[in-house]
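Tokens for chain A. Residues wanted.
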């Protein structure tokens, strides 16, 4: 039996309130529209079990693009016949396409920038609720180690992905390490909280403490000082995922392939 042509892509995203994801969604929608495909969006919180998300959503769409942290089985093993492209998955899944951000390269570029600005006492506000869980932390520590710079065991503070959460985490970190002269934030959303906390302590950004973000959200240009960040082309990320759907569809097979998007260091006033 010949399958009908693809007409609808399912897009699974974790949090549309996070300003990172609407731009990815726009990239998927625009790229799909160029091919005459529709996009159906679902929040991953709708189903706590990611395998169940694939099973349930597969009956409503012809292919899937999604953020899955813990999907460890191929669609065929879940008894569904559907093309799946993973976005920023921590581990590859057999027969699924994958599009990710090269987090390691981005973090390295950012930390080297701080080092070039003369900073040696650098801390980090990290988050665990992400597809690339602790990758930023690992890369951050690796760069400092390669440069022979000691990183205190408690110079990394974990935060929820919110501005108030990052403010609290920054105060806790600077209470322990007031000597820090630069802070690398997990993403731009948390970086805003870092800037707010540093200012609340009567310190100047970047004079007393430089702040570096990650993601390149528009809000980074709206705060004072404007935020230095590792910019990710989020629309391009979504478009690349649709490209992978088309590739898998045309090739007629689902071999593993990993497409990476390189972040770009954008230097502004906060460093």
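Reply:
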């Amino acid at each position: 039996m010949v399958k009908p042509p693809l007409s609808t892509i399912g897009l699974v995203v974790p949090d549309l309130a996070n300003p990172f994801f609407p731009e990815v969604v726009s990239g998927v929608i625009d790229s799909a529209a160029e091919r005459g495909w529709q996009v159906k969006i679902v929040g991953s919180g709708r189903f706590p079990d990611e395998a169940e998300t694939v099973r349930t959503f597969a009956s409503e769409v012809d292919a899937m693009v999604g953020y899955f942290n813990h999907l460890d089985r191929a669609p065929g093993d879940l008894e569904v016949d559907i093309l799946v492209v993973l976005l920023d998955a921590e581990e590859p899944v057999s027969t699924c396409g994958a599009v990710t951000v090269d987090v390691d390269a981005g973090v390295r570029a950012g930390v080297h920038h701080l080092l070039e600005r003369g900073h040696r006492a650098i801390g980090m506000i990290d988050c665990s609720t992400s597809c690339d869980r602790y990758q930023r932390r690992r890369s951050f520590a690796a760069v400092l180690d390669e440069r022979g710079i000691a990183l205190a065991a408690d110079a990394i503070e974990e935060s929820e992905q919110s501005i108030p959460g990052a403010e609290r985490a920054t105060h806790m970190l600077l209470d322990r390490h007031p000597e820090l002269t630069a802070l690398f934030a997990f993403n731009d959303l948390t970086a805003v909280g870092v800037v707010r906390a540093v200012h609340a302590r009567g310190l100047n950004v970047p004079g007393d403490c430089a702040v570096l973000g990650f993601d390149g959200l528009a809000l980074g240009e709206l705060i004072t000082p404007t935020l230095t960040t590792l910019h990710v082309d989020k629309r391009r990320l979504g478009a690349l995922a649709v490209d992978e759907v088309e590739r898998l569809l045309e090739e007629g097979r689902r071999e593993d392939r990993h497409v990476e998007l390189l972040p770009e260091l954008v230097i502004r006033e906060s460093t």
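DSSP finds seven helices and twelve strands in the chain. The mean pLDDT is 89.
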